[in-house]
Design brief:
The chain is of the alpha/beta class. It has 10 helices and 10 strands. The chain starts with 9 loop residues before the first strand and ends with a helix.
Amino acid sequence: MATDYESGFLARIFEASDGLKLYARDYGHDNPLTADRPTVFCLPGLTRNSRDFHQLALILAGDTIAPRRVITLDARGRGLSGWDEDKSRYSLSVEAADVLSACAIFDVPQAVFIGTSRGGLILHRLAVERPDILKSVILNDIGPALEVEGLAEIRDYLNRDRKPADWDDAVAILRENHGHSFPLLSDEDWADMCHAIYADIGGKITADFDPAIAGQMTALDLTVPLPTLWEQFDAFGDIPLMTIRGEHSKLLSVATLAGMEKRHPDMVTKTAIGQGHAPILHLDDLPLAIQGFLSAI
């Protein structure tokens, strides 16, 4: 493992509006030099958690010139957040409300939001419902139109659901599922990804989310035309926006990215070379690109 995942932050437990206990990591909260800059709030993908952003958060919070407070969230049913007894509440509307609860509890009236995949879909909702909290937005391999091929790939690997025998086997499973899309990754990077996705639960290496979340995806009927979020995307309006696309992404197409640029002419775009869906944000030159975008905020 390239880094210690259990240091450099304050673990926070808080209650959602319905009383469910949720978990977040708070980086740079005790550094007075972060007070004059907007907090960075990170929202993970469908079955992912706050650990996805750990190395990026350390980079941003530890910046010697412009350090930032960074909050990374485990959405309900993921990581160390509680599992919801009502599985229908694993929804974008409820999870968007959870983000607003976190902002209120952590005294974050406005933030820079980074949304990976599903996290970016939540930001499309917030752009309509609460644009005032969006100081700026970084969408990580997500946009207002999703490609069927990419959704089918996600559905298929969740359907495989092979249980790893140990950590080495877990790494092997990730390589089998994603190796073709992530030629950039080193052995160390694969190990890092593994420890972000899996957890040792009761002595077994287990994907760190409520299986009901994957069940929603595996039951998806991709023969039905997919709704788009172009109207919600337009709500980003004058909000500074950056979109990162994985070079080998099958979920966010080049055509959709071009459409986003046309509707938001000031949008900054960045291609994550050698990565697919969704790019790992602490690799290669992505931290520099993100810091460059943030420098104007």
